[in-house]
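U., I forgot to send this yesterday:
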Amino acid sequence: MEVFTQQLINGITLGSIYGLIAIGYTMVFGIIGMVNFAHGDVFMVSAFIALITFLVLTTWLGIGSVVLALLIVLIVAMLLTSLVNWTIERLAYRPLRGSFRLAPLISAIGMSIFLSNFVQVAQGPRVKSVPPFFNEVIVLMSSSDGYDVAVSYKQIAVWAVTAVLLL
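Result:
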């Protein structure tokens, strides 16, 4: 029973993550009228823009205030990411607006592959992990064979964000 309960918790968490991805694709589809497979890759590029901007501001320019640095990072990342999105739309999507339905889909997949490879070449293929914000777990049930049923605060945060965004 413990294994089933733990897998149910894991399944709900994974389903919530799929729901968040679906919300993103639905929003993009509603705006531009096509499935943009490069959607997540644009977020990745934006995260790298934000990281590089933060490092430049704090290391080279010596800004000591984290709040000011994050505000500048937010503005710079939004501006540069919107420029990346505008360029993608002009080069890859707008020329294919009137064509058959498969062409924009292939273009979106190609743009996703291009962005992934561009970041891998620019930043290197090594994994850059981020330390977790939530390490603690809540043990719901404990069995005699040492198998605990637990839910982490990270899973609860995923559930909460998904519920709020779905509403």
